[in-house]
């Protein structure tokens, strides 16, 4: 916990201001042909999360997609995060980006981090970002990316133990 007083407040930070990809041997997925490739030593739940994200990586963006049912033609941001968390056994039903601001525990996880604010959510799984926007291209929809992203306004949350 960071405690700031008086003039020191301008020097204190509530966390990183940008998410930036950083390859870490034995911990980070690689991105090959737009598909996340998990290293063999990562926990099985994390491997399942990577596989779930790979299933969605070519689906189109669809507002409300993934919320009526987990298997859908297209997905929005929170539908994407919900799908992965459900596939891993961490979520019973789809939820909104606002509700994801309160999911799990506060802060970044060792393997999975959900970044959520009112109106948008994305996740980082084993070092790769799964997002429906900000991928640096014109395509929208669930995509793995190494592209940096501002974290302004986002809350970092993580599943317990991950």
What does this protein look like?
With 162 residues, the chain is of the alpha+beta class. It has one domain (18-150): endopeptidase fold (from Nostoc punctiforme), CATH 3.90.1720.10. The protein contains three helices and ten strands; from the N terminus they run βββαααβββββββ. It has helices at 44-56, 77-88, 97-100, and strands spanning 18-19, 30-32, 35-37, 105-106, 112-117, 120-125, 128-131, 143-145, 149-150, 155-158. The strands form three sheets. A six-stranded antiparallel sheet has the order 4-10-5-6-7-8. A two-stranded antiparallel ribbon has the order 1-9. The protein has a two-stranded antiparallel sheet with strand order 2-3. Strand 6 (120-125) and strand 7 (128-131) form a beta hairpin. Helix 1 (44-56) packs antiparallel against helix 2. The longest helix is centred in the N-terminal third of the chain and has 13 residues, at 44-56.
